[in-house]
TrEMBL record:
This is Probable nicotinate-nucleotide adenylyltransferase. InterPro entries: Cyt_trans-like, NadD/NMNAT, Rossmann-like_a/b/a_fold. Residues 6-177 form the Cytidyltransferase-like domain. It comes from the Bacteria. Pathway: Cofactor biosynthesis; NAD(+) biosynthesis; deamido-NAD(+) from nicotinate D-ribonucleotide: step 1/1. One of its GO terms (molecular function) is ATP binding. It catalyses: nicotinate beta-D-ribonucleotide + ATP + H(+) = deamido-NAD(+) + diphosphate. Belongs to the NadD family. One of its GO terms (biological process) is NAD+ biosynthetic process. SUPFAM superfamilies: Nucleotidylyl transferase. Its EC number is 2.7.7.18. It is an enzyme of class 2 (transferase). Keywords: ATP-binding, NAD, Nucleotide-binding, Nucleotidyltransferase, Pyridine nucleotide biosynthesis, Transferase.
Amino acid sequence: MGKIGIYGSSFDPITNVHLWTASTVAHRCKLDKVIFLPCSSKRKDKTMKTSDAHRWEMLQLAISNNHTFLADDHEILQEAWEVYTYYTMEHFKQKYPNDEVYFIMGADLLVDIAEGKWKYDDELISNNKFIVMARDEINMVKTISRSPILRNHDDGTKFHLIDKGLSMEISSTYIRDEFSKGGEPRYLLPNACYEYIKKHELYSS
């Protein structure tokens, strides 16, 4: 049995922090694979700055030299009303029935679940395992203990909390802003992605 982490984001664009985070999580949690899952541009709660095709191509360029990393376009191909994390995790558990599948997320998303902001939250929490990364000085243990939906499903193996050394906050938004305002974010993302963005004039104002 292997261990697989599902790492979803807009990846608009993918950054070196995304890659470093995935590599660190894989190392600490002994994951055999990390699946990068770009979210659908059809989602009502997301506004993409580039097309699915461009985001997918940059993701492929970014992870091409790491055998632990895979990309999957499952959510990109879904209709908007089918894109919920609970459905996504059911898909990957069926796709990898002999492996343990974890959902990788930041502590900010844990807070959102605790506050009832996610659809099918009870089904999601009761049927899955999570790797939660520290973010914005959020106290993850208190977040779990204060939320009935989180604490009542916490059997000691439900949440793998990574609390140290994963708080770098260089974001895709920051990189997009740098490109649009004439900045120089070259070393904040893979060089192949930097060159791709320059070639296709992405994120320019």
